[in-house]
Amino acid sequence: MVIEKICCLGAGYVGGPTCSVIALKCPNITVTVCDKSVERINQWNSEKLPIYEPGLDEVVKKCRGKNLFFSTDIAKGIQEADLIFISVNTPTKTFGNGKGRAADLKYIESAARMIADLATSNKIVVEKSTVPVKAAEIIMKILRANTKPGVEYQILSNPEFLAEGTAHSRGQKAVQALCWVYEHWIPAKNILTTNTWSSELSKLAANAFLAQRISSINSLSAVCEATGADVSEVARAVGRDSRIGPKFLEASIGFGGSCFQKDILNLIYLCECLNLPEVAAYWQQVVSLNDYQKTRFTRKVIESLFNTVSDKKIAILGFSFKKNTGDTRESPAIYVSNTLLDEGAKLHIYDPKVEVDQIYYELTNAYVTSEPERVRKNIQIHDTAYSAVTGAHAIVLCTEWDEFKELDFKKIYDAMMKPAYIFDGRKILDHEALINIGFHVQTIGKRL
Ligand code: NAD
Ligand code: UGA
User: Fold this and answer.
1) Which positions fall inside the UDP-glucose/GDP-mannose dehydrogenase C-terminal domain (predicted)?
2) pTM across the whole model
């Protein structure tokens, strides 16, 4: 089976970059990324892409209009494609059964129904979104119940894991076709094929294991602060054991991002449904510890500022959930900012890549506050770190952007209220140097 045309439903953080790489690596394949959002597609077709990712601009510029297209014409995309990726969003449910834990599969279902309505030839349908185990079955049921004569579907699960691909179906030819696409740039030995359920569960398991490492080191950061141990030294020592390894052991104000919490909650919900409460409780602890870490850090900020931040100017440096992205989903900076705003603080926020409207949205939407106008009045967004910190009582560093390490802290100290405080939630600054300048410094996992 030869793949000439690929269509992707969902032009988000997964669909956009994944398809751009496929277009780059497979010049013989035409890739069309479709989205129902006109605004998103217009952004993908503009000079300023909707997503910031190092290197993405160059790849899109090279391929767009040649073998990479962004379009709202979903019908055409589906009809022409040999292979369709579903990479729509699967957010945590905010209502009904499984609220706050289960993944909401309504976008997956609507994508499957669109394919069933529109397809007039055989398709390989690849579930790329992160879904609960057995979600491929939903897609299969919808497609098979609505199949038009002469149209056959093969459904594969191929969740997004960095460079690994996992795929399987009874139709081995479909698996081979998808592997052939990836083999344009990934060595065949690195492409794993598994059964569908293993593929879906491996995705949840991988994110759960990664998040668990962060919660483990964050739990030890609290012990370090209580004892005088240094969490970076502990991580370095523990990571030397090759069975443990050094990666993903950075203590922080807690993990964020659109996937870790969502996928663990999804795993917990699955375990509860399977009547495995002990397993559910085990994974719940990873999320609870992460909440604890965010709370613990914020409490430390407030306590250090004499237990009152009311009307104090606080500079928030970094708002994205990690460096090198403008993505704010589940960013720990949101929790920190919200709590400080609840306590009456005036926040001056600077992030090198997050859009101004996005910060306002995260702090004023109905899920986080019932007083959006009051919150809006108490936030100011800046386009440099220096203007954000001028006149501030404290700096709270929430994201580990490299440029924060290069700031002139003597100049900053001179521009701040005294005593001047810095709370380094990412352990990236030179704490000795800051103390020598005159700052009061607090960080994660180390007493200063
Ligand atoms: P996203 O919200 O950025 O993008 C999803 C897009 O799908 C939106 O633009 C939405 O308008 C569109 N959409 C929804 N229904 C549609 C339909 N029927 N037809 C066409 N477009 C439709 O989401 P994302 O971050 O790209 O994540 C997508 C999936 O991949 C999720 O399941 C997520 O868990 C998983 N995932 C995400 C990442 C990541 O780094 N963000 C990594 C691995 C896996
Ligand atoms: C994560 C996984 O790393 C990817 O493999 C996976 O494909 C993806 O989720 C997904 O399924 O969406 P991502 O959310 O982009 O990727 O970001 P990470 O680099 O994993 O960071 C997640 C959070 O953990 C960030 O807030 C980061 O600052 C934090 N983190 C990471 C730490 O606090 N300490 C660490 O040592 C590492």
Assistant:
1) 315-431
2) 0.87
Domain that holds residue 162: 5-194
DSSP 156: E
Write out pLDDT tens, residues 211-269.
999 999 999 999 999 999 999 999 999 999 999 999 999 999 999 999 999 999 999 99
- Which ligand is the nearest neighbour of the Cα of 89? 1
Same domain, 376 and 276: yes
CATH number at residue 318: 3.40.50.720
Of 194, 213, 231, the last residue of a domain is 194
Residue among 160, 210, 331 to mutate when testing ligand 1 (max atoms within 8 A of CB): 160
Whether residues 288 and 434 share a domain: the answer is yes
Which of 153, 177, 194 delimits the end of a domain? Answer: 194
Count, in order, helices (H) and strands (E) of the chain.
17, 14
| Catalytic residue list | 259
Same domain, 234 and 133: no
- Residue labelled with tokens 């969740």: 159
* Most informative mutation of 87, 128, 331 for ligand 1 (most atoms within 8 A of CB): 87
ipTM score of the complex?
0.90
Residue by residue, DSSP assigns 53-118 as -TTHHHHHHHHBTTTEEEES-HHHHHHH-SEEEE----PBP-SSTTTTTSB--HHHHHHHHHHHHH
From the CB of 16, is ligand 1 less than 6 Å away? no
One domain for residues 214 and 344? yes
| pLDDT tens by residue, 25-70 | 999 999 999 999 999 999 999 999 998 888 899 999 999 999 999 9
